[in-house]
């Protein structure tokens, strides 16, 4: 006799996953516009489609790059940043944080392994602060949506924030703060995460069948991931440009003063959208009057306070260290926005 007891649960799980899918939100929003405002249905869909097609070359480059980094085993290079003198470790960790090809869940066991090996908290803080801000795929997506000057400013902000946070943490620890910063931690095995000290990366991945398989798998997975999130992002951007009055945006976060930048950083923390959705939406906001400095502050603060980034920190360190992480993130976001606004 067939066991049907799990069928309702499996059906509910599939239904929840379907309802939570970006595809459902994307098509649902387009259907709502068609039903509630038929004259704007075609302009909204056309705007989103044109924006998506304009980004397509960047998507292709990002997908190939991240698949290649995964297949090479480049995490071994990242691990070498955490060796040597503490000051050198901070600099290397901040520089390499933006290049780490890790998903959010992989950061947790990777960092935990480093901490277990005695890696200083200052170097880990530098990596933690820079890693959520930029990586090769999001650099390309940001450049496509907001231009290369903005993308470069975001990358520079990531490194600068990592350096600042690392050296602040070093100074605090040398003065007796954070004597026992870590929680107990047990490996979760999440995502088959890499561990520090892996074998050296193999750059010509096409010579190894196993690495070619990893490359193909990562290519498919990341292509689907980027396409579904960017499709939603551009539909949201189209709705923003169509329905949100420009003077409202300009009144809140427009202008050249520090006030809009501080407000954007504070709003960006709880309102974070992932690094693939945020650039198109910010492109729409800047068209509506948001200053570029405010846009950068929003993006930096949002990345530091994203749910995966905060979980990675919260799961490993005690509350005072977590509070320092958030404080450094907000301050760094505001400072980055102010400096970028002065430059542009």
UniProtKB/TrEMBL annotation:
<keyword id="KW-0812">Transmembrane</keyword>
<feature type="transmembrane region" description="Helical">
    <location>
        <begin position="90"/>
        <end position="118"/>
    </location>
</feature>
<dbReference type="GO" id="GO:0005886">
    <property type="term" value="C:plasma membrane"/>
</dbReference>
<comment type="similarity">
    <text>Belongs to the UPF0718 family.</text>
</comment>
<dbReference type="InterPro" id="IPR052923">
    <property type="entry name" value="UPF0718"/>
</dbReference>
<feature type="transmembrane region" description="Helical">
    <location>
        <begin position="294"/>
        <end position="316"/>
    </location>
</feature>
<feature type="transmembrane region" description="Helical">
    <location>
        <begin position="249"/>
        <end position="273"/>
    </location>
</feature>
<keyword id="KW-1133">Transmembrane helix</keyword>
<feature type="transmembrane region" description="Helical">
    <location>
        <begin position="18"/>
        <end position="36"/>
    </location>
</feature>
<keyword id="KW-1003">Cell membrane</keyword>
<feature type="transmembrane region" description="Helical">
    <location>
        <begin position="221"/>
        <end position="243"/>
    </location>
</feature>
<dbReference type="InterPro" id="IPR005524">
    <property type="entry name" value="DUF318"/>
</dbReference>
<keyword id="KW-0472">Membrane</keyword>
<protein>
    <recommendedName>
        <fullName>Permease</fullName>
    </recommendedName>
</protein>
<dbReference type="Pfam" id="PF03773">
    <property type="entry name" value="ArsP_1"/>
</dbReference>
<feature type="transmembrane region" description="Helical">
    <location>
        <begin position="48"/>
        <end position="69"/>
    </location>
</feature>
<feature type="transmembrane region" description="Helical">
    <location>
        <begin position="322"/>
        <end position="343"/>
    </location>
</feature>
């Amino acid at each position: 006799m067939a066991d049907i007891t799990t069928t309702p649960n499996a059906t509910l799980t599939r239904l929840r996953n379907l309802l939570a899918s970006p595809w459902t939100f994307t098509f649902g929003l387009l259907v709502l516009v068609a039903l509630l405002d038929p004259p704007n249905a075609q302009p909204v869909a056309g705007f989103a489609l044109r924006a998506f097609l304009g980004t397509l070359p960047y998507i292709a480059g990002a997908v190939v790059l991240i698949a290649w980094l995964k297949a090479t085993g480049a995490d071994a290079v990242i691990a070498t940043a955490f060796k040597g003198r503490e000051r050198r470790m901070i600099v290397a960790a901040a520089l390499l944080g933006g290049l780490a090809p890790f998903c959010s869940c992989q950061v947790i066991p990777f960092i935990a392994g480093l901490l277990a090996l005695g890696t200083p908290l200052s170097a880990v803080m530098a990596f933690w602060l820079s890693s959520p801000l930029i990586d090769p795929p999001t650099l390309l997506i940001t450049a496509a949506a907001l231009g290369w000057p903005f993308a470069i400013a975001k990358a520079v902000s990531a490194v600068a924030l990592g350096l600042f946070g690392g050296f602040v943490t070093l100074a605090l620890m040398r003065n007796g703060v954070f004597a026992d910063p870590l929680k107990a931690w047990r490996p979760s095995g999440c995502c088959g995460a890499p561990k520090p000290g892996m074998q050296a990366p193999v750059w010509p991945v096409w010579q190894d069948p196993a690495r070619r398989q990893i490359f193909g798998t990562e290519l498919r997975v990341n292509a689907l991931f980027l396409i579904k999130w960017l499709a939603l992002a551009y539909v949201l951007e189209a709705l923003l440009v169509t329905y949100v009055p420009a003077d409202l945006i300009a009144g809140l976060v427009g202008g050249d003063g520090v006030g809009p930048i501080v407000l954007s950083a504070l709003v960006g923390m709880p309102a974070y959208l992932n690094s693939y959705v945020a650039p198109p939406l910010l492109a729409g906001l800047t068209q509506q009057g948001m200053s570029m400095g405010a846009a950068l502050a929003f993006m930096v603060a949002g990345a530091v306070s994203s749910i995966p980034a905060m979980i990675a920190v919260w799961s490993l360190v005690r509350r005072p260290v977590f509070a320092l992480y958030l404080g450094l993130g907000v301050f760094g976001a505001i400072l980055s926005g102010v400096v970028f606004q002065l430059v542009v």
